[in-house]
Write a structure and sequence with these properties.
One of its GO terms (molecular function) is helicase activity. The chain is of the alpha+beta class. The protein has one domain. Helices cover 51% and strands 24% of the residues. Helix 1 packs antiparallel against helix 2.
């Protein structure tokens, strides 16, 4: 019996393990990209909601907090400024990726909404 008999099995297993690691990395990158898109849309909605509330005398940041939470995000920053044209709300929203990287650092996005200058 030749001494290298069965060595192909080890190479096939190593290649399969490498492919599995690459697939997991690609899945994690996709989850982070999806969380980034979700964070951006959540930040946009929170800023718009906050600006709408502030335009009628309500709490802009309070409304932005509600909108972000309802969309599955977390409002981590909010500022309300008054311009000559009306109120402007700036928000920062964090969203956690789901799946393999769900417990990792959240993805954040910024948005601004309000009266046009």
């Amino acid at each position: 019996m030749p001494p290298d008999r069965g060595s192909a099995s080890v190479l096939v297993l190593a290649a399969a393990a490498g492919a599995l690691v690459l697939a997991a990395a690609a899945a994690a990158a996709g989850q982070v990209a999806a969380a980034g898109a979700r964070a951006a849309s959540t930040a946009d909605a929170a800023a718009l909601g906050g600006a709408a509330a502030a335009a009628v005398g309500g709490s802009g940041c309070g409304r932005a907090h509600q909108v972000a939470g309802a969309a599955g995000g977390e409002l981590v920053g909010c500022s309300l400024s008054q311009t000559a044209a009306g109120p402007v709300v700036d928000v920062v929203v964090a969203v956690r990726p789901v799946g393999l990287v769900g417990s990792a650092v959240p993805v954040t996005a910024r948005a601004r909404a309000g009266a046009a200058p």
